[in-house]
Amino acid sequence: MSEKVLKVDIENQAALLTLNRPEIMNSFNFEMLYALRDAVENIRFNSDVRVVIITGAGEKAFCAGADLKERITLTPMEVKKFIYTIRTLFSSIENLNKPVIAAVNGVALGGGTELTLAADIRIASLTATMGLTEARLAIIPGAGGTQRLPRFIGRGKAKELIFTGRRVDAKEALEIGLVNKICEPAVLMNEAKAMAAMICECGPIAIEQAKYAINVGLETDLATGLAIESNAYWITIPSEDRLEGLAAFKEKRKPVYKGK
Question: N or C: which end of the chain has fewer CB within 10 A?
């Protein structure tokens, strides 16, 4: 993994992944995709990490999408490889066994917005600008945008934004349900870390199973979704954490969950 294009910091059970190409608005090239892929897979099996925060370096951009200077040098087959890599990566992030928070600190366009859609929670700075602008380059969103955006904001609004390539500011993003929360730029990371800390207070097995039940269950009918929820609940019953939660409640103290 290259520290040059991706910074990884782990503190208080939270992994902070910072896209680090601020000179070109943290845009994706192959090197950054591979670095992010490796970091996510390492985190998947790191029991010391319970939540992930993804943000961009600098004050201007979260991620402006693909590095078009690199893209123009790629052959059609290399472009296919890029799209396959980024789509697979974002699905891996969406299905990570830990919650992912996108701290959107500025411009998030194309693949940048698609990355936020793969996260579980989105907190945006008031300076953030988001949009799926690919149609303006005569292509379409290729990292999940045509599928995830309608599920978030509805079919009609998603079609409007994708067909026009229009950008939305933070306030509109909140109004249409594209982000969970907006805040002043100076407190964005504090807000993201506070959210991460709240998640870390909960049982990690429960969080993992809740995420799985939501993600998988929503893609099925209600009866199947309820069965998925039931099976996910059963996994929590024999855990040490569940007994710790009950003991802490009885003893009027904070529980200490170990993910066991």
Answer: C
